[in-house]
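Consider the following assembly input.
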Amino acid sequence: MSLKGKKIAVGLTGGIACYKVPYLVRALRKAEAEVVVIMTEAATKFITPLTLETVSDNPVAIEMFPDGEYVSTRHIDLAESPDLHVIAPATANLLGKVANGICDDLLTTVICAAAGPVMIAPAMNVHMWANPITQANFERLKELGYLFVDPGEGEMACDDYGVGRMAEPDVIFDAITAFFSRKPKKKVLTGKRFLVTAGATHEPIDPVRFITNRSSGRMGYALAEAAVALGAETTLISGPVSLKPPPGVKLIAVESTAEMARAVKREFKTSDCLIMAAAPADYAPVSRAGQKIKKSSDALKLDLSPTVDILREVGKLKRDDQRVIGFALETENGLANARRKLKEKNLDMIVLNSPGEQTGFDHDTNAVTVLMPGKRPVYIALATKKVISGKLLDYVARLL
Ligand code: CTP
């Protein structure tokens, strides 16, 4: 893809991954982008400004107030003129400063004043990346709309192994070209009412204990967000999760499967489509102890009875103008089980996923297979739950 006419500011902070950045700058130049480079003082310890000046064909900016140069409002020009700012590598320090509005050098000042989008490629030691403070800064920046090229997993310069190394220059280059070739999504679901369920339910045993399923709710929340982005009026019925509802959705918080069933049946009547991404508990204790059950050395037996299968009930109520989408989480015989559920629950589509190292619950990523009656299964390869949701919603929109 040609990047002719695009001006890209590449910011480097002090990390060993600096040595890879000339490859990125060269790729951008080959694609005919104009590139201006801004370096922190620490970055200049890892790679010389002369190298970056040579590959970018432009002077490199480092200091806020360089001696003998006319600076005036240079930081504002550097902030406003690029079509995209890319920070690669971005240290934990850089994330912390940007997330907290600190402007104590040229790069952070430019980023604070940036008029357009900022894409960040973090690079740091595995423990620095895993540090809850770094993660909180990362989450905050994502929430604020900063774009990320997530760090990869592998060996580090310090001999540690794990997540934290900068994405390779070609991956960052692809993210940049994808950014420039993105098309605004058409609001194809305008006028449609969507009902999405998410998360696990809790079935109390006593006042302090409950039975539940493993489910973070991320898939359902991402689907609700994708439905809103396509213009649907969206209601999200959620079990207890630690996620913020996406802007624009109506949230109905529930706790047990019975409560979820009541809410779904009520809201379904006026919905065009139900996406049942929740993981409701299949069994609930027959009775709930009024007080905390005291432990003893004897085995504890719990009597459980099956809860209502919400999807099956809704499948029976479904009108011709309504669509019902289910999920199937399978650890074995995935396709056969999903096909059976598709038919038995009278669904228009079922999304099969299997728990794995990067899929299923507790992950930001997933890989799924979409099954529809009379159609061949479609596999959607590993991607973030946000990307998977967008693709799933494209299929759902066609069903409507
Ligand atoms: N589901 C539901 N009500 C339940 C349990 C599940 O509506 N009490 C829905 C889920 O939201 C999902 C679909 O049914 O969309 C399939 O859920 P899954 O747990 O894969 O299968 P089950 O039908 O519960 O069957 P099994 O646990 O035997 O695999």
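Residues 261 and 330 are 22 Å apart (CA to CA). Ask yourself how this observation constrains the way the partners meet.
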